[in-house]
Amino acid sequence: MTTTVNRPIVRSFLARFHKECAAHVRAGGHGVYWEEPKRARLVLPVPDDDNPSDLALFSLLDLGKQRWKVEEKGPFAGLATVLVPRSENWIVLRRVERDSVHPGPTRKVRFDCLACGACCKDNEVILFPVDVERFREAGRTDLMKPPLARRVNGKLVLTLLPETKRCRHLAKDNKCGIYTVRPDACSSFPVASECCLFARETELGIYDGLRPEA
Ligand code: SF4
Ligand code: SF4
Question: For a disulfide at 131, which of 37, 84, 127, 208, Cβ 3.0-4.6 Å?
């Protein structure tokens, strides 16, 4: 089943182009605003933390950030901004490089999760109490025990196949073997988020835009 998503295009703006950056974000894009040559701020629509598929939310989660500031005045009034850790500048620069071939603030993309499965690879899914309860109700307590699950730093996670790093529940045809009881982290993983795009690049070599320079 394919899903069509209107995803934000990420653009870079020098400090003097704050109005253009704000206009790009208000039109649906994401901005990387350089306050200083090495100090960038992500400018986003205000993330909706009640919506697990919110692309602005995942744009900053992908950077390891969980908080943002809603600007009250100036050109970014009403928009969210997040300081990019200097060590992660390469991540936002790569987003900008990827999207440099796309015009406009947004882009419609079709994704076929069944033909992809990239986020089911090299990704130890954390199991939350709600998942454990769902497994219990389905009579699948095996899903929360070795070899299918293990504890890492106090958190229960699904294990990966040692040779391929695929989730043990990912079948050869890329279908999830526990689809009806799959963990919340899987069912809410947002298609077209930065995490999705990154997984497709690293696992499958699929680039929704310009490939990285060698
Ligand atoms: S990486 Fe994205 S497109 Fe691929 S299966 Fe996951 S959510 Fe779907
Ligand atoms: S449980 Fe299913 S959806 Fe989740 S990572 Fe494994 S194969 Fe993918």
Answer: 127
